[in-house]
Amino acid sequence: MGNPNKPFVVGISGASGVIYGLEMLRILKKLKIESHLVITRAGRLNFQMETEYSALEAEALANRAYEDEDLTAPIASGSFLTRGMVVIPCSIKTLSAIANSYSASLLVRAADVTLKERRPLVLVVRETPLHLGHLELMQRAAAMGATILPPMPAFYHRPQTIRDLIHQTLGKVLDCFGIPHQLFHRWGEP
């Protein structure tokens, strides 16, 4: 499940749903888990289009933030130990690059390194509906070791707000890394 004393890498790509990435950074900070962040150019634009927050505010929540063009960043190397990585949200473009090992950007290179080092990689793929090409990319990434975790809300925990729905997805992400949390009520809990 990755090394619990090492940094957690967060990638935010250009899919709709950058609020998931922002809220993940807030939770990691609250849990006192070191985070290293990379945001794509399209991800930066989505902060402007979808939220009242900026990419700079997201970067301020991380312990370290890198430019997507900086292939010399520590997270581009397998010798830099991490507990794993989440790409949240993960665009189909980013999924395609990861599934095809096309490491032309830092976000994709960090994901590729995560896979080659056999660390957990969670891809919160945000697209709907999906055609066969999307599904084949997900299958390919999963075969390489990634966990595909689309942000599909559950309702057994009786969400009252959008934040409740977001937290349920983030809780599922943290579960993939074995990180304890209280973000939603689990099935069978009162």
Automatic annotation (TrEMBL):
Domain Flavoprotein, residue spans: 8-174
Documented EC number(s): 2.5.1.129
The entry's keywords: Flavoprotein, FMN, Lyase, Prenyltransferase, Transferase
UniProt binding sites for FMN: G14, A15, S16, T40, S91, I92, K93, T94, R126
Enzyme class: transferase
GO molecular function, one term: flavin prenyltransferase activity
This protein's name: Flavin prenyltransferase UbiX
Origin species: Desulfobacca acetoxidans (strain ATCC 700848 / DSM 11109 / ASRB2)
Gene that this polypeptide is encoded by: ubiX
